[in-house]
Write a structure and sequence with these properties.
- InterPro entries: Polyketide_cyclase/dehydratase (IPR019587), START-like_dom_sf (IPR023393).
- This protein has a single domain, classed as 2-Layer Sandwich (Alpha-D-Glucose-1,6-Bisphosphate, Chain A, domain 4), CATH 3.30.530.
- It is elongated.
- 30% of the residues lie in helices and 36% in strands.
- The chain has four helices and seven strands.
- The longest helix is centred in the C-terminal third of the chain and has 22 residues.
Length: 178
C-alpha cells in the first residue's frame, strides 16, 4: 500500500514537469498604431529613450521611481535605468543597441529585480502617407523550463500587449497634439 501511495505522489509531482516539456518557452508581442504625423517627426521622438517617460505605461507606474541616464540619448549605447520599490516596476535598465535612422530602434531590456532577465525590444516607424506613420512596438521574452509552466496560467502576450498598446495610444495623443 505504501508503495502505491509513494508511486501516486511521484506521478503527481512528475506530471507538471512532463507537461512543461511540451509548453513553449518563448513569446513575442507586437502592437501598432497609426499617428497623423510625418515619419521623420515620429521617429525623432521615439528614438529618444527619455521620451518613453511620457508615454510608456511602465514608466508611469511609480511616480517615486528613481531614473538615471548614461550616455547621449538617441544614440547607440545610451542607457535609461530605473529603480522602484514597487514590485511591478522593480529595478532595471534599457539600452539602445541599434538604430536604423528613420526606420527602427532596437533596445536591450535588462531586468535586475524582482527577477533577472535580458530581453530584446524594438520600435519601428513606417510611412503610410506624407502625414501618417505606422509605429510598431515589439517585445520578446523567454521562460526557462520548468518556469514555462506559467504560460498555462498567465497570458503574457495579452498582458504585455495591452501595456504596449496603452503606450502607443498615449504616444499618438502626445504627437498629434503638437
Amino acid at each position: 500500500m505504501l508503495k502505491k501511495i509513494l508511486l501516486g505522489v511521484a506521478v503527481l509531482i512528475a506530471i507538471p514537469f512532463i507537461v512543461a516539456l511540451f509548453i513553449k518557452t518563448d513569446y513575442s508581442v507586437t502592437r501598432t498604431v497609426t499617428i497623423d504625423k510625418p515619419v521623420t517627426e515620429v521617429f525623432d521622438y521615439v528614438k529618444h529613450l527619455k521620451n518613453q517617460d511620457n508615454f510608456s505605461k511602465w514608466a508611469q507606474m511609480d511616480p517615486e521611481m528613481v531614473k538615471t541616464y548614461r550616455g547621449t540619448d538617441a544614440t547607440v549605447g545610451f542607457v535609461s535605468a530605473w529603480a522602484s520599490e514597487n514590485k511591478d516596476v522593480g529595478v532595471g535598465e534599457q539600452e539602445i543597441i541599434a538604430i536604423d535612422e528613420g526606420k527602427r530602434i532596437d533596445f536591450e531590456l535588462r531586468f535586475l529585480s524582482p527577477f533577472e532577465a535580458t530581453e530584446p525590444a524594438y520600435m519601428t516607424t513606417k510611412e503610410v502617407s506624407t502625414n501618417q506613420t505606422k509605429v510598431e512596438w515589439g517585445f520578446s521574452g523567454h521562460m526557462n523550463y520548468p518556469m514555462n509552466l506559467m504560460f498555462l496560467f498567465v497570458d503574457f502576450e495579452a498582458m504585455i500587449g495591452a501595456d504596449l498598446q496603452q503606450g502607443l495610444d498615449s504616444l499618438k495623443v502626445i504627437l498629434e497634439k503638437e
